[in-house]
Records
---
Amino acid sequence: DVKVTQSSRYLVKRTGEKVFLECVQDMDHENMFWYRQDPGLGLRLIYFSYDVKMKEKGDIPEGYSVSREKKERFSLILESASTNQTSMYLCASSSLGGAGTEAFFGQGTRLTVV
Amino acid sequence: GQSLEQPSEVTAVEGAIVQINCTYQTSGFYGLSWYQQHDGGAPTFLSYNALDGLEETGRFSSFLSRSDSYGYLLLQELQMKDSASYFCAVRDRGGATNKLIFGTGTLLAVQP
């Protein structure tokens, strides 16, 4: 059974804290993605990675960074958390196949910044 | 840039047929996918259209018209368990990679 695991389901952090969201996949996928999900806005791509140490900005990278030191792990970092980063964060992975390649998602981390 | 627009909400009754539309604008188009997400759950893959026309998978069908930059997901014989959010998605080439972009999502409410 394929699996994408996010380290926390719920997280509460204070404004200004550095926050790490971790994602691990066990499918040997090349692509990994971080999205945030907000009501009415769908899933917005923050960053993605197509190989170890490789990353590209998505549509809303401001205030975030990422790290991919190992193929199976992709971390999202909030350098200095702000209240407008309160959201559901979803990690996904997929192989390097064609355009119809299925992406597999983790269960999400609901982050609240107070 | 790229954008995918969907209606925000659709309501239908059990046993009915419902269509969820998606219009898109992308810099490079490689086909349209659909994902389902139940409340509190992870999105899961439903279907993919690379070419124009209808693809059928059981009660669900997906349609694509590349000339109109438009697609839809058709759900037949609706069941209560179909109540969920539905997202269209495209792979849009970003550099040497495949960037996966999602639409705004449609919340489907199935009523008895």
---
Amino acid sequence: AQSVSQHNHHVILSEAASLELGCNYSYGGTVNLFWYVQYPGQHLQLLLKYFSGDPLVKGIKGFEAEFIKSKFSFNLRKPSVQWSDTAEYFCAVIRSGAGSYQLTFGKGTKLSVIP
Amino acid sequence: DTGVSQDPRHKITKRGQNVTFRCDPISEHNRLYWYRQTLGQGPEFLTYFQNEAQLEKSRLLSDRFSAERPKGSFSTLEIQRTEQGDSAMYLCASSLGNRHNEKLFFGSGTQLSVL
């Protein structure tokens, strides 16, 4: 079964700082990768996803993520964070082409942005 | 508002009681998923439906848990003889399509507390 590791439990940044959240997955086959975000008091929502093509994917609110197959990684980045980016971020993976539609999530990284 | 509704928002029950949660997905979505999330963890897959058919269940889902989606619309998740370890946020999500990279739309969840 696949697993997802998120390296940081809690990240604290000042506004305008750059962000990189690490994500590694364990499955060696073809995968689809996702970042979901949960803002305080809100439901989980999709930030961006990768399934094929250009390994650099762009999502909403200026976020991007790079899929590096050789490193089994899908790190999330943003050049300049805002206070409104304060949220919990979850990396997730699903095996492509397998019979399963089970999305496996990491434990999440809580991001706090200080104004 | 994602359009996925869950009821109730909160449920407090005594150990040994049965509880039932309801999920109303976005109306045209053919897939419906149940996840469970505990503090400090990411969502954990429980089961999913394609229309009314339950196609996959997690190995972690004990036989005290049962889910239905009788007409391919709303779904219910029942937990029999609840245990304190069942305390968690139960999340429902829905999606449209048949590919592995579909976006999941999550509800706000039902928070279960077993005393």
